[in-house]
Amino acid sequence: MVLDLALWTSFLETHRPHFRVSVLPGEAHMESYVMRTFSNDWPEFGRVASYELDMPALSGMSGAPIIRVGSREVIGVLYGRNDAETIEEFSSRDPETGARTPEVVRMTSFAVAHFTDTLRELRGQATQNLPLAEYLIT
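The structure corresponding to this sequence follows.
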């Protein structure tokens, strides 16, 4: 089977579940798609309303703004990754030798970002217990 790259690209452009975003705007920007929104169970912070992007979370990108392509709207802030495992090959044992072949697992990491609405409501001692958005305008 031959894959028509132009046809596949066109399909992806029109059938992505959400929208395109730009990460690290400027000369070094990267474009990605928001693949889904979900509640990420983050060990240090509990459940976090998050976007999952179709790109890996590269080291040093935490804190990068997520901007809707074609606008200046910041919709999120990159904070980490969501790891997904896929079993490529199950473990097996050779019936003649008894030698065991280990399971082969492929790990894929997707970038995740906070909703900016969540960050606007952030509060604590540093914001005098006011929501961050309110604290920043006072």
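The helical segments are 5-15, 116-120, 132-137.
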